[in-house]
């Protein structure tokens, strides 16, 4: 070792290098260091129960010399919800489970409010039987830190919520754009189908009329032949009549025409409903018949529903409702599709409407698999789904709830796992004047 570098004392001799201070002065220096660091000191005589609290400790809590002088008196200042944890931490330290004592707890301030304190300590003496006899420690006010942590947690939760909301809005925007594109396509298809349907319907009306006229003419000629024709001429005409099986045609043709008319009207209804759904992007508020919207939606889903469920309509006497019809049709579509998907084999979907007080209710109930109780509080959250991966986005119910909320309504759900689910859409009844006020054109009394 170079001569100009002093040799450090060995660890065994380091203690001897410290200045030997009187015990009282050591205690005062210790307390002074704690006061400077902002910590309060405490000293607990476990045998007698007496407790010493330094000036800084008392100042943290707004007390003077009259603060608790015993451990039991100190406990009366501790928040009741923290007492059990405090005793457990002390016991763990006494039994060597914890090398040091540490506990964050709330202590009542002189103003009556509780402050969060970080308490640390160490057992320094044991009696001849090894039992704890003296413990010393410090206390630091961490109320500001706890408040900051709570604020940070709230801000974090709010950030997560807003982020989820943003993601949901972005996906809903994409979905809305897709729906708008589908709407444009549907409008084009409906328009292209509507033109030939128009002349097919017109021509079919003429065809029905011509068929009746032809049958009437045939009957007239047959009657005339029976009355005036010679035997051979009548025999030839009657043979043609029978070969054409005119009697059967007279009986069967009306039924054929009726069934064809029914099929044509069904196609026209589908095209009309398709045109309704082509207006998905429209935001025009109006008074609308909800039963018409429900029937249109059921008609659109007819093929998907008929293989899975029987549809029961229990329609009440509903007034028209102030709404954006195409948006509510989207709600009905989402709820009905969910009902179909919830039925594993064959079941029943009940669509029920009624008026309750100042709002209308639309129930869409299924006899499907139901929803687990632990999922009921989450089903309206964006991206939450109980379906298998790739089977759903988890946005259908979130979008439905958002649309209903825009109509100042709400969606309720009740479900029993293994028995079925009922979604109830509640929408407010709106008077003509209230609707005009919402549109910015109040109706003036006459």
From TrEMBL:
Q: Which InterPro entries match?
A: HATPase_C_sf, HATPase_dom, His_kinase_dom, HisK_dim/P_dom, HisK_dim/P_sf, PAC, PAS, PAS-assoc_C
The record ties this protein, via PROSITE patterns, to: HIS_KIN, PAC
**Which reaction(s) are listed as its catalytic activity?**
ATP + protein L-histidine = ADP + protein N-phospho-L-histidine
- Broad EC category: transferase
Q: Which UniProt key words apply to this protein?
A: Coiled coil, Kinase, Phosphoprotein, Transferase
Which residues are in the PAC domain?
101-154
Instruction: Extract one GO molecular function annotation from the record.
Output: phosphorelay sensor kinase activity
Q: Which residues form the Histidine kinase domain?
A: 188-431
Q: Look up the EC number in the record and give it.
A: 2.7.13.3
Q: Where on the tree of life does the source sit, at the highest rank?
A: Bacteria
Q: From which residue to which does any coiled coil extend?
A: 145-172
Q: What is this protein called?
A: histidine kinase
Q: Which organism is it from?
A: Parazoarcus communis SWub3 = DSM 12120
């Amino acid at each position: 070792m170079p001569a100009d570098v002093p040799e450090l004392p060995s660890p065994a001799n380091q203690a001897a290098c410290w200045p030997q201070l009187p015990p009282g002065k050591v205690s005062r220096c210790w307390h002074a260091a704690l006061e400077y660091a902002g910590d309060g000191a405490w000293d607990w005589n476990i045998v007698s129960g007496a407790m010493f609290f330094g000036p800084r400790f008392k100042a943290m809590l707004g007390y003077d010399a009259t603060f608790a002088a015993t451990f039991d008196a100190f406990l009366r200042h501790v928040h009741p919800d923290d007492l059990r944890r405090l005793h457990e931490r002390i016991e763990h330290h006494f039994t060597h489970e914890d090398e040091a004592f540490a506990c964050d707890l709330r202590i009542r301030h002189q103003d009556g409010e509780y402050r969060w304190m970080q308490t640390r300590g160490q057992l320094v003496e044991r009696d001849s039987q090894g039992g704890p006899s003296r413990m010393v420690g410090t206390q630091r006010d961490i109320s500001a830190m706890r408040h900051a942590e709570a604020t940070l947690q709230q801000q974090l939760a709010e950030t997560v919520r807003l982020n989820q909301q943003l993601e949901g809005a972005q996906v809903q925007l994409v979905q809305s754009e897709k729906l708008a594109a589908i709407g444009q396509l549907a409008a084009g298809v409906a328009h292209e189908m509507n033109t030939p349907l128009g002349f097919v319907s017109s021509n079919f009306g003429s065809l029905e009329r011509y068929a009746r006229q032809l049958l009437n003419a045939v009957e007239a000629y047959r009657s005339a032949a029976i009355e005036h024709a010679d035997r051979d001429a009548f025999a030839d005409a009657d043979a043609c009549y029978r070969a054409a099986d005119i009697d059967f045609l007279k009986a069967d043709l009306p039924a054929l025409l009726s069934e064809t008319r029914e099929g044509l009207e069904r196609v026209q209804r589908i095209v009309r409903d398709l045109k309704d759904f082509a207006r998905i992007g429209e935001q025009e508020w109006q008074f609308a018949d909800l039963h018409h919207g429900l029937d249109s939606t059921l008609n659109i889903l007819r093929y998907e529903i008929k293989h899975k469920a029987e549809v029961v309509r229990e329609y009440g006497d509903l007034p028209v409702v102030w709404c954006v019809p195409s948006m509510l049709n989207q709600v009905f579509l989402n709820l009905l599709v969910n009902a179909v998907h919830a039925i594993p084999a064959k079941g029943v979907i009940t669509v029920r409407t009624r008026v309750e007080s100042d709002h209308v209710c639309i129930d869409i109930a299924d006899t499907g698999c139901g929803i687990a109780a632990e999922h009921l509080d989450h089903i309206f959250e964006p991206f939450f789904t109980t379906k298998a991966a790739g089977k759903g986005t988890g946005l259908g119910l979130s979008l439905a709830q958002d649309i209903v909320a825009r109509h100042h309504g709400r969606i309720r759900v009740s479900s029993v796992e293994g028995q079925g689910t009922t979604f109830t859409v509640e929408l407010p009844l709106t008077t003509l004047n209230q609707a005009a006020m919402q549109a910015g054109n109040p109706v003036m009394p006459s």
